[in-house]
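Hello,

Following up on my earlier ticket. Below are the two sequence lines again, exactly as submitted.
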Amino acid sequence: MPGRFSFIFSWELHERLLWFSNLRWVAVAGLALASFLGPFVGTPSTWPSLVMVAVLVAVYNLAFVFVLRSRLGPDQDYAELRQVAILQMVTDLVALLVTVHFTGGCASLVLPFVVFHMAIGTIMISTRIMYLLAFGTCSGAVALFTLEQIGVVAQYPTVTGRQPTVDGCVLSMAMLVGLVFGIVYLTDSVTSRFKARNIELHQTTTELQRALDEQEQLERRKSHYMRISAHQLRSPLGTIKTSIQVLLDGYLDPGSAEGRQLLQGTATRVDSLLDIVNDLLELAKMREGRSRAPWTRNVSINQILADIFDAVDPLAREADVELVPHFIHEGAAVLDWAVPPDLVYAFENLIHNAIKYSKAEGGTVTVALAIDANQATVVVADDGIGIPDKLQEDVFLEFVRAPNAKHLVAEGTGLGLSIVREAVQMHGGHVSLTSTEGVGTTVTVVLPLHHVPPEVEST
Amino acid sequence: MARPTVLVVDDDAVFVESLTAVLQTRYEVRSAGNGSEAVVAVEEEPPDLVILDVMMDHMSEGFDVARSLRADDATSLIPIIILTGIGRVYDLRMEVDESWVPADRYFEKPIAPEELLRAVAALIGPGEPVA
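Thanks for your patience. The regenerated structure is below:
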């Protein structure tokens, strides 16, 4: 049975093997009873042999039960359990043929019991193996009956004391073959549907379970995100409330220089609170798949970058940072579809960061654009403070800011890079980052030129 | 007698201004903007009490400071007030269980000025107004 289902089938097979072992005690009891009753119904010569067979079956059944209970658990490898099942079948069939031999050969009343094994084996093991075993059993029986008929081995009388005739034997052999193969075929055609349904059911259950796990994980992530957001909002609120209380209680006079300074500081905390709320709204909107503007055809990244350069130029001058555009290819990178304000936000944010966290004086920020047939690559590189190694993977997560960034620039919501990533992913692209603390950071944005957003596709 | 000294450790300058305004009515106030500054400030001149924020540059920076103060014989007796902004003290206790440091008092921001003064007075006395 294929690997991923082997657990459920191993469990089932283990259960069935134990059940089959229990049934075998009934066979042992039957044999013992037959050997006990034999002398009374006129077959005195066979009873000690039947006792021997009963003892033999009891011994190997004990061995099987022992192995199943203590050595092979329900979580055993399916292949190993199947080998045990086949071994059980073969020993049973041999024991059965021996019993048949002692109870009248081809005329034995025990012969039809072969049918049980064929049916149970087909359910328990596999049709292919059971056809092989059916062939083996028939061959064994034919060989035994032939040897009995030609007198090579002894011919025992039946329970009723009769000796089988040659005609009867041929008929019995034909019936045996028909019965054995017929039963395997019939059982298979009934149970194969159940087996298929069993696999289907197991597949469905597994899929449902996986969906449920994913849902639970999503819920956990959502509540974690909510908690972090609340913490981030609570922190400036604590400061604001304390400031107000200090002023209200008269510890500082709002008119005094210190009072004014505290008010000023409190106002900046309110601003940062507003920034966080605005960024959270922005992020939530993007996550819901809503862009802040409609999708537009044929958007030039060159144009967007040129506009941003104009906008951030004063900031760069003020910070004494040289802004170096480096457009590697002639011609423009044009996206089939884009939301210009979202791309502007993303690139502006990255270039802003590069300027903000660049060297104290004389830093350089390079913005390179490369185009090939399918995608545009924008690289924003600075020679600034860099990002500590252990935070590099996390800076795209909400509210993650490196300590060195916080020291350099107090304000910042910690949401900028999350929004950048969201905006880039919305355009079918991806963003990555390499950085060395104290040396600089390089952010790479790759955007496919021919991405068609689902919103556009569906209209 | 000199006024007792309180060291306020918090990375939020505005919050430090507020606490300073309140505490300086009865105590000398010094401040530090992060854990390492706090350790330096204590070494320079041990204060009579330390008020610690928890989350500064690192998640549990305040606790690290508290632990190092408690571990050092010279500073182990300085009373510590933990004043955290990142959430309810109960949540915090759950989160930092392993590194939990017994401070003398725990408060959540915001804190009422009167309440802060009462807590400080209970630990190091009422101080005295500027002469």
